[in-house]
Amino acid sequence: MYCKSCNIWKCFARNLVSVQDTPRARALAKELRAVRNAAGATMRQAGDALGWSEAKVSRFETARRGLTLENVRLFLDALSVAGKTHDRLLKMARELDQPVWWEFGGGVPVQLTELANAESRAVHITSVADVRIPGLLQTREHSRALLSAFGVEPSDRIEQLIAIRQVRQGTHQAGPC
To answer: Cβ atoms within 10 A of the Cβ of 16, count?
Structure first.
C-alpha cells in the first residue's frame, strides 16, 4: 500500500510490523502465550477461533509476525480475556512502537548505542571486564567515581553516562522475555 503522506510504499508495512523482534515485542508475545495457556487453549484452537493457521499463532506468540494492536485485540477477544489483564496487554501493544530508551539525543557514542541494542536483544550475556565491578553491576556512586577518575568532563556528561548505564541495568533486571 502506498502512503501519500510519506510518499513511499514502505510506510504501510513499517507501521504494521516494525515492532517485531524487540524486547517489548518479545515480552508482549510471552504474555500472550501465557494467556493462551492459562485459558487452556492450544495454538490450533486459538488459530481456529481467529481464522489463523497454527503457524501464524506460533509466529505471533514469538514476536516474529503480526504483533499489531488489532491482532492483539482479536487474540484477547478470542480467548475471552477481560479486565486488568486485557487492559494491560493492550497497553503493551500500544507501546510497542514507542522510542527505545537509548534515543537520548545527541552526545551518545555510536558504540554505546550499538552495545545497548545488542544487549536488549540478547538471550544470554557473558561479561568479561578488567575492572573489579562490571559496568552493569555498578552503583551510581561507583560509576560517578570511575568516570571522574578517568577524566570525563563536564559533570552533565558524567550524569548522562550514568543515566544510560542505569537504564541498561534495568533492561537486565527485568529478566528474559
So the answer is: 17
Helix (H) or strand (E) holding 14: helix 10-17
User: Which residues share a beta bridge with 3?
Assistant: 8
Cell representation of residue 92: 503493551
What DSSP state is assigned to residue 100? Answer: P
What CATH number corresponds to the domain at position 76? 1.10.260.40
The span from the first CA to the last CA of the chain, in angstroms, equals 32
Cell numbers standing for residue 18: 516494525
Per-residue pLDDT tens digits for 33-55: 999 999 999 999 999 999 999 99
Backbone angles phi, psi at 84, to 5 degrees: -65, -40
The count of C-alpha atoms lying within 13 angstroms of the C-alpha of 164, restricted to the half-sphere facing its C-beta, is 22
Q: Is residue 132 pLDDT above 90, yes or no?
A: no
Same domain, 91 and 115: no
Position 93 confidence tier, pLDDT thresholds 50, 70, 90: very high
- What mean pLDDT, rounded, does the chain reach? 80
